[in-house]
Amino acid sequence: SHVLVDNLENIAKFLGAKGFWEFLERIYGAYIESMEGHNTPIIRKVWEILQTKLTQIEIVYTNSNEWALAKDVYLLQDQQEYELSYIFEELGIKLVHEDIHDKFQIMRHDSINIALLGPLDLAKALMANHFAQPRNFEEAPEWFQREEGREKLSKEIERLLHRQKPEELDSVREELQTCCIAISYVNKLNAPKSLWKASKQEIEIFGALNLAYVFTSDKNPPGIANLIHDFDVYAAIDVINLGIRDLFDTSNKNKLEEFWNENPSSIINLIDWFDQKKNIIKNNYELVKSLRALPIWPSGNKLYALEQLYSPGNFDEPLNICLLYTSDAA
Q: What is the C-alpha to C-alpha distance for residues 61 and 63, in angstroms, rounded to an integer?
């Protein structure tokens, strides 16, 4: 048995991937029989010695046609997932070769324990290979630029999340949401957590203020699109705050004023949009406070925060924003 163990790597290469794993299956099967009293004790000893070495030797044949240690390789739960093998290879993920996927059971045995590919593994690989930072869509790997590649990645994300334990799902989704795999409305790759799904009307309203870049494109397949949050009032306030100041401009100028001066209806349409959400806003103190602080309210040829303005008497103010003026402003 010690001679067998010492020559295990050579035996693997001599028998080939499929022959070697069939050989291991037979030894393990004989071991089970010996445990049940149907085989000689020596067989039990062979497996007991053998299993202590299986993770220390390169005995796993990979999809890139090389031998590797068990700890460096992943198993796919479903053979159908091998349609993504070229994508996994691009992402640096080593897979058990498709020809020996049917040896799944013994590969998952405690003595070998080849890991199943999970969503966190995929997220880590994406971050390490081209998808950690925003970039132009044209700079993405060729496989991702093709619709077929994005569709396959999307389906794999859906499969992996579906298999996840419910109590772990939110944290796992958050990891995938940091990978820059979502196409924005302006054709850039961004992290799903940095984009929002919005209606065509909302994109037009916020796009008139040069804020279309925060919205998702319709080129994202479902598995990726489902990682992106729906646009709402909270998101709108965050987005406007992004657009007010140019990070590289020290003049403290309200950038939205430029677009308002060029297109006066842009701010009016924005305020109308908030008015349509008044049932959500008016009874929420934090939303009202945030909206009052936004310098989007026209007076003369400038935009101000409502805190800086006075409201005329007998003014019908459906959002109840003016009711929160400070006593000094009043």
A: 7
- Here the tokens at position 239 are 């987005």
pLDDT by residue for the chain (330 residues), tens only, comes to: 567 767 888 888 899 999 999 999 988 888 888 777 666 667 777 888 888 888 898 999 999 999 999 999 999 999 899 999 999 999 999 999 999 999 999 999 988 999 999 999 999 999 999 999 999 999 999 999 999 999 999 999 999 999 999 999 999 999 999 999 999 999 999 999 999 999 999 999 999 988 999 999 999 999 999 999 999 999 999 999 888 765 445 556 778 888 888 888 999 999 999 999 999 998 899 999 999 999 888 887 788 888 787 655 554 554 544 433 333 333
| Cα separation, 223 vs 128, whole angstroms | 20
Q: 115-116 and 74-75 as β-strands: parallel, antiparallel, unpaired?
A: parallel
What is the rounded distance in angstroms from the CA atom of residue 47 to the CA atom of residue 69? 19
Contact yes or no for 118/160 (Cβ under 8 A): yes
Residue type, 175: E
Give me 135's structure tokens: 């970039």
Query: Looking at residue 107, what DSSP letter applies?
Result: H
Pairing of strands 60-61, 67-68: antiparallel
Residue pair 295/244 in contact by the 8 Å Cβ criterion: yes
